[in-house]
Predict the structure.
Amino acid sequence: QAFGPCRRMFLGPKERRPPPSAERRTMLGVAAVTYGFAVFVASLVTAWTEGLLAKVPQVRVIRAIDYLHYPEEKVLFALRFVAGLGTCFYFLRDSRVAGVAAFGTLYVLFMELAMVLTGARKMDLREYGRTARPLLALLKQSVFEGGIYFTNFFSLSRHVAHRQWHVVAAYMSFFLLFPWLGVLRGWPKPRDYRGGALLSKRQMLTTLPARLVTFAVIAVVASTTIRGRRRGDEATGRCHDTFLAYASSQFPVSCYYFTVLRFVGRSYVDIKAPGADPTAPPLLLDALATIYRACEPAIGGMCVLAFAAPALGYC
């Protein structure tokens, strides 16, 4: 009894999976049907608008080097994933986070396959600076972006939801340090707007149809949770808290991450008008583009959560 408060402080309560509820099954069904239909529609719209957008000035995302180019970045990225699983297992007694990683991987895999089938994805993915085989690149992107990357932020959000601030502080220390690892390799470097030795370029507006569709899925599920919480339903109330904790965890960190990448010159945006050379964007547009880039992974993660939370009992 004397050590009870200390145990609750450092280990936290053991999470139990709640019994299935009609609201949870309805929420999962709505998310699945809406997303399954919407992904193909968004991919078709993306492929159709690609030619139209080529006639207007484009805001492009430039990568001078891969996000995980150096060995220390790859190792720390993998360790961060293992640490995310470990803290949820140890402090929260929650093994369902492994299922969250599987949901994230399948989400990105399904989305990328839809883009390939509709012609929206040209399969020019890269693997640490080298052109990778299409299937291998697709699988690796699904695991890294859908499984590992999403699970890192989901693990953080679980500790935020349980107010385990000592664990949150450890997470945040790592997140704040990670984008500065390039300093050990000679960064920052000047931003090259003339298109020299750049790794890849992506037109930002071409992904807008897909983002709007995923945002619509999130809006449908969010409205369901809000209505359920107002009715006093316990399951949808928990889902509402889960969504809120995740959004408040990932979005600020993503804003910080892309701001640092822009500052050191590893990834930034430019403006390319038809028939003209690329130029640096105005300061306000640069800031808005950084916020939009931070919204992209946050919206994708929320869409994964629309499936994972009801299916794994977080709702």
Notes: The two ends are 31 Å apart (CA to CA).
